[in-house]
## 1
Amino acid sequence: MQLLNQTAGGRAEQPGRLPALELKSVSKRYGNVAALTNVSLEVYPGEVVALVGDNGAGKSTLVKAIAGAHRIDSGEILVDGSPVTMASPNDASRLGIETVYQDLALCDNLDVTSNLYLGREARRRHSPFLDHEQMEQHAGQIISELAAHLPSLDSLVSSLSGGQRQAIAVSRAALWGSKVVVLDEPTAALGVAQTAMVYDLINRLRDRGLGVVVISHNMADVFAVADAIYVLRLGRNAGEFSPAEATPESVILAITGADSIKPKASEIR
Amino acid sequence: MSTASDSTIQQRFRPRGGLSNYAVIIGLALVWVVFQLLSDNFLSSRNLSNLVLQIAVLGTLSVGMVMVLIIGEIDLSVGAIAGVAAGSMAVLVSILHYPAWVSIVAALVIGALIGLLHGTIITAIGIPSFIVTLAGLLIWEGVQLAIVGDGGQIGISNLFIQSIASTYVPIPLGWVFAALIWAGITVFVSVRRRRRMRSGLTALSVTAYVLTLAIVAVVVAGVTLLLNSYLGIPWVLVLLLVLVFGFTVVMSETPFGRHMYAIGGNREAARRSGIKVRTITVFVFVMISTIAAVAGIIEASREFSASNALGGGTLQLDAIAAAVIGGTSLFGGRGKIYHALLGALVVGSVENGLDLLGQPAAVKNVATGLILLLAISVDAISRRRRLARGAAS
């Protein structure tokens, strides 16, 4: 809790800057289960926020709330300081928030360009026909900016490696997300080299001035890329840390709530 | 692994289905050579002209089947729908004496409504298309029997409807059509090439460009010459080519077509991308049923009647077989409209060739089945390879 105050104070020292995305006391219930209780979160432009927590801590619910997939029961979501309502993923997209889910949601049978423009294809002016050239040009720009390691834009996604697929999903989010990009477990299925590539990708998103939210289990991830770490436990905020000042051990303590478990453990013996 | 050497390997072995396309064409050439060796008449202009007439119905049905397979669904009822459409048209034109065009439009509308019903049940209740169209097969075959009645067939004496499948484009007009087709393809290829070069994207080299246009010219001129040396280009071939061309444009040049591929590739990803999966699915079933009605009209025109056997037998299974043999995947997301034409040519050539050799239906069925098995095996193996590549990464 000391740490929470410290870091919150540190980040608030940027006067006049509004968070790209802010959650204020957000709550969400599924029937009798409180999935989120008064959760707050701030993501500034050009900042990477890591969201950590154990299974069932409410990370997925929070992601779905930010992505517009689930409505929140109470609390406020603010984009650039103004409150918004998100009833569908399209609402989130319109507000400049893009989410990359763990399964990446790519179509293996389509090429890289088609995946980047999936559902948002460019048409030639005054015609129902696809503007292949415009799409390929823009796709080429974003890919060379973010992920230079792709074989070519017309290779099918099925021919790409796990890291390359992650890169395409992230590039798609960057292409459309003007404010905030949310990455759900971006390194979960990746090897060492590919994980490094994703870190690089996240840094480039930050350099483009986007707010980035990374959901992760992996302390190495979190300390490698994050500017701020939020811990969720049992659907509540359980601490906010600065990677520069905190240690992985202290974050893990907050995740597991080890302090509060100890007395119970001694009762049981 | 995303190393540089990996990328070059992937570029060298571009898995774009190019090889399997050549495989079909080589297979077709092989079939033709074998039958020509066994029977001198196979490659005669008369027989090839007959072949075109024989595959018109099958090719038309397969165009629809390719689209349904691309979105990862299947339609087992196309033959019965063709039968219902043909029967309705025959009743309207021969018994109720409506004008030909009214009867034809009515048959198409009936086809479209059947597709609307199938698509709505599939998407609203969430039953697999396999089951819904299997039920449809039984229902529409029953309806066809009821429409055609006890006579077993309704004769069609209307000259316009008779002429659809039995008249030929006059020889000079045939050459005009051929020139138009070549000019159209030339404009398309040239405009695309210029646009890509202007946008700084990789485009066809001059050699590839000239070679493409030359090959198109040779093929178009060759087919025209061949058909014109018998009775001319059959109008049904013109109809089939218009269908193939039109739906090719839809599939590769419009967002709608792109969305169809996306649905077949990853339904959930398509849905999350804001693609209207249900609406598109319903629309595809409307399209295939309308196309099936077109096929029914062609077949009725060929037979000068709508019988209760029209569209029955192995026709609807042949339509699926032709689409798959042409290179369209049974697993969704992969296929081109021209696969229908290629596959129908293979199936039609085998049947036609075995006919020439005096083989019974038993041999034809076994031969078609074996080719289908081969095509599906190629499809399944290439799919497993793709999956293995994805899992290894």
## 2
Amino acid sequence: MKKISLFIIIVFISFVSFSQNADSAWLVNNYTKMERYITMRDGVRLFTSIYTPKDKTEKHPILMTRTPYSCAPYGESNWIDFWNSYEMAYFKEGYTIVIQDVRGRWMSEDEFVNVRPFNAAKKTKKDIDEASDTYDTIDWLVKNISNNNGNVGVFGISYPGFYSTMAAASNHPALKAVSPQAPVTNWFIGDDFHHNGVFFQMDAFDFYAALGFGFGQPHTKPTSVPARSVGYPVHDNYKFFLENGSLKNLTKYTGDTIAFWKDLMSHPNYDAWWKARDARNATKNLQPAMLWVGGQFDAEDCWGAWNAYKAAEQNNPGKEFNKIVEGPWYHTQWSNHDGTHHGNIQFGSNTSEYYQQHFEIPFFNYFLKGKGDISQIAEANIFLTGANEWKTFSQWPPSNKEDKTMYLQPGGKLDWLKPTAGNSFSEYTSDPGKPVPYEEFVHFNRTRTYMSDDQRFAARRPDVLVFQTDTLTNDVTITGNVTADLVTSISSTDADFVMKVIDVFPDNLGYNNVNIYAEKDPQKIDPMGGYQMLVRAEIMRGKFRNSLENPEPFTPDKITEVKWELPDVAHTFLKGHRIMIQIQSSWFPLADRNPQKFMDIYKADDSDFQKANIRIYHDASNQSKIILPVLKN
Amino acid sequence: MKINLLAIACLLNTYVLCQESPDPGFVRENYTKMDTNIPMRDGIKLYTVIYMPKNESEKYPFLMERTPYSSAPYGENNYAGRIGPNTNLMKEEYIFVYQDVRGRYMSEGVNLEVTPFIPGKKNAKEVDESSDTYDTVDWLLKNIKNNNGRVGLYGISYPGFYATACLPDAHPAIKAVSPQAPVTDEFIGDDANHNGAFFLLDNFDFMNYFGKERSGPIKDYGSQVFAVKTPDVFNFFLNLGPLKNTQSPKYFNRRSYIWNEYLQHDTYDHYWKSRNIRPYLKNIQVPVMVIGGWFDAEDLFGALHTYEAIEQQSPLNNNYLVMGPWTHGAWAGSVWDKFGTYNYTTNINKYFQDSLETKFFNYYLKDKGNFNASEATVFETGTNEWRHFNKWPPANIIYTEYYTGSNKNLSSEKKINQSGFEEYVSDPGNPVPYTNGIYSHRNNEYMVEDQRFAESRKDVLAYETGTLNNDVTVAGKITADLFVSTTSTDADFVVKVIDVLPDNETSPGGASRDVTMAGYQRLVRAEVMRGKFRNNYENPEPFVPGKISEVKINLNDVCHTFKKGHKIMLQIQSSWFPLVDRNPQKFMRIPDAHEKDFQKATIRIYHDTDHVSKIILPVLQQ
């Protein structure tokens, strides 16, 4: 959510005037920029930036992004620096590129509504939603942009991904192709601000209040000036959130003005309010060709890409073109130039460039220009990390995957065999005063690499449990959802559980001929030998274990099953590696702390936070396990 | 003592610190090299390499380094790229002498670990490093032409010890000695042990090379005792298990004589006491300049305590101390302007080499120029400035007690009617790492590293002052005085004094790993105490489970300013792994411990009125 704003705004503000090159001269000579207010059915006008080709020898398609992050720079002589982006390819193809400020943001009129619910049964002109705004915009464009070929595409990443999903639901007949990318889909279950009901306080606070150019500040009239953000008094995020204490205290910083923050705080459970804001509601009867795009290491909307695709698949049986691309990427990485690595993990090729040339550009060219061939785009086009190769599948998860169970064993072992011991468990104390950090080092901002970063720092803590297999004698490829299924007991009435699935590299592994035994590490390159690469992690707030709608307390010390699904993954644990899992009860300050007392956590006081002893059982009658979606050869 | 890395790398000509020579042909062009065996009083011959200036228009003093790390390159046609303590002195021209000490490399005889000094020698069979130096000096004066009758000695680390060792009963021609990071007491504070706690990581690495036996003079010891490579020493040593497993066939297997001695002598017995040279530094007449590094992970203790022993027992001697913001031996390189997240902005080494080291030897050995250094030339970290004192520790310090209290509080105001304690579980199965990050070797920056990774653990206690309203400069020794109890019979105690940077401290651009400097917890000084030695290093005593005991820990000196706006933090923990081996937390001979002997213990640190744990800081009065 946040990254896109920083990304776009930084690009807009700082690069526009500075980076000129041959492409920039070409663009300015061959395109015209227009700014228009387009009137919606209810009379509200949306500010729209239009870049059209001067060429009149053929008719051109329209490619649009609708954004809450501004179509800046404003002014018809001020241009976005498309020449620094792969998107230059669309200009060379003669597309008309449209960027629109969504309702209530920046230069557009009216009030902004976060993740505005989709209204499937609009009755009057007053019943608007993002789908109707898109419909009205497309309608205006095809009628007013001279020389257009009547074909419109929409794409966008992150929040603009959400608007892409909503655009698809407009079903305007001119809309032929839509690519929602890392689309914000469900903010309670898996995207941005909550995972399984656990509040991702750092991202939310950054986005709505502290950073993010004051996204949550009220929009009283159209403006080109960013709102003020409150900033951080403490530039150490672990310390800031820990010393801040309960979420109530965080609300003091946001003040009264950030309405959506108050909304978040007043909907602690998955209620009707949240359900209305599930973008999957808008995935029925989709007419355009759909290409869903996501990053497996996307810290913001990893869940949304997989699950919006799945919903569209389920809701549109037999639909000809509803496909997905998933690469090894941080949020937005596929639109950047460098897709060779994520953090310390190398991919052996430029996966971003491959994506742009192999999937996205051919997709729009085919559906909007009738040009080229798309036979290379399979139903599911997935980069398999570990093996470092693109794989295609005719369905997702693949038909030839088999859910296989691995059991936690005494002595920190993980095995396909069931445990046989009687009364065996591992135990730790989870102390909200000393939560487990989500990252090894202390930062000001959330890192974009934590989802693949080395977990050895956590393995060394007394409040993190580690279970691992022997060295693998064959490759193990997993494709789909991993399920964590823990048998626990806790000494209190609530607790969080974080399951981390980790690829342990062999001790002799190294990248790029870096001598990891050098006396002085060259610029602190991480020793990759023994690296514990995070493959997938997910948190579960214990009280939601049976229902996100109706939380239930734990009975202290009573054996209880906690089962949850981790977002999809596509990874090969190579022969010679090990599969490891780590279990912990905090993930700070990424996730807010559970007071470990059953209550509405948004109303917790500092005094409610208490230590809890957590047991994870691994004996013959209480089998904790993970279920791996193993791809059969 | 880990100078082996430095020394060995030097020999291979790969280490930046030593290979740097503005003109690689300089030595060959200006010096004549002689390799010779010098007989000692007991008939043993020591291999000695002598570089003599070709210019014979004047007489020169000798400047000698005695080393266990080889005087290579061997052979009169093979020249070192750089000779002497620094390049100024090389260009000044001295007769530079390198000698393999007794029992090492090309010298005959038997090597003893940190050779004990023999006071009042009775016959020619009683030899030590003092007599070997004496005999060598005697031979040099008589056999090397064109000498001016004066000799200086210097050396870093183990060679620092050999420099110190010439001082008792010194040959009268010895006129200047500079022990630099000298190995001094291997049980109390240098290299092998700190307060009886075994420095596993360094010892294991070093003795794999240094403890290898030889059958006679040898140019090259060949491979190490055993081959071991790991990307992650924390994991390696945790998996290795108890100390006794180091003697398994895969590792030392009793093939390293010094390793055997280390495991045998687990208390401050005669073995260690006889290797402590400090009692013999009495009535020293020779001018001495001791050099040490505040961030020397090996022999910081040795530098401070060699200076102190001479000062106390030879009060009239010209005895100088130089303490800089260096790691082990870093003062010998050409440039030192930053370390960790410290940025000194100027080249510290240029000042040291030009204004101190060169002038010291020139003055006392050549009567050239003058030498008017202060008694103590000390770099103040935090403000990053050199300070000059006529006494070390400075006269104008007040030992100020900072008391621990509830709610993480550390305060110089003693609270009355305070009660309580903090507690943690120390689990040898899950020891506290000494460093954050993954290393295949000791992280040389651990002494200045950010301690936030430790504070977030449940087995680390942290206490901090409020934001300081004024600069607080601490100059001298730090003492921790803890009141503790444990549920078992032994435990280690690590105390860490930390400078906490302000919450809005800006991070310099380009910082690796993008770590935020806001709230950075910079380690200023830390030390470990093996609990059973709290009252006595010779006779360890168990703890009585649950009973409050006092544990006093001496920390090495600092000269550091906690700036206004910062905070002073104290952290306490019971492991520091794998820097220090794990205490099984059971009173016993730890080298004999089995895996099953290692047990968890609940440790309390008290702050009640009668048992208030505290640190005592030497606060400089400005």
## 3
Amino acid sequence: MSDHERARQPSAVMDEVTIARALATAVRHVPGVADISAGHLVEVATYGPAARVLGVAVQRGPGGWQIAVHVRAVYTATLDLRQLAARLRTTVREALARLGVEAIEAIDVAIDDLLVEEGTP
Amino acid sequence: MADASIPARAEPSARATGTPTNLLTEQGRTTIASTVVAKIAGLAAREVPGVHALAAQGAGEALAGLTQRITGSDLRSYGVNVEVGEREAIVSLRMTVDYGVSIPQVAEAVRRNIINRIQAMTGLLVKEVNIDVIDLYFPDDEQAATTAPPERRVQ
């Protein structure tokens, strides 16, 4: 896709960093998420001019946007990480819809770590 | 935000941060890091009465544990080694048990709890839980050491 073509598309107003910032905010408010995680071996982030959004990777792929979010979950006795992952995926999809971003190829969710609060045995 | 990634790098056991697990769906992939699985297993083991503590897996982890004690970072996956595949996991742990308990019963309860917790929380099938009971803990030892004044044998 040339820059010219990209500029004519409605989602072209949205750059990677703007999307990543919106997603980071949305993800942080999901119940069960302690924080966003910047990944543990390779940094997970979205880069732009003088900007770096950690924990959310937004890229343009051949089939549409490729999104990855990395989080640290809060440990509870009734923790269900598959449910949390599904909740995160829905949150990301809704946030993208609000931004008017279409053509989503993949939403990858990673639980990098657990936050175990004091007092848990 | 950058801070959130730092503890992950100084993770409990180097082995616990190995291959993450992938749960592939049509809408994308879900990855659960092995540190997460190790922490769940460690907590599940400690929940069982009779388990005194988990112990380091060899010298490497003993050193890692020492660093964490000094830096005050999370020790909860300490003593647990996990191998995580796409759908299955294998857990190995070393622990000390309280003197007086039935070791096979406690070990079996630990195994059951680890399997249940990991399956409920991550959806991974636990193929094996290998438990090494490496020592017994005598509660009296610590009490004697902390409370009782040294007895004089000669008046």
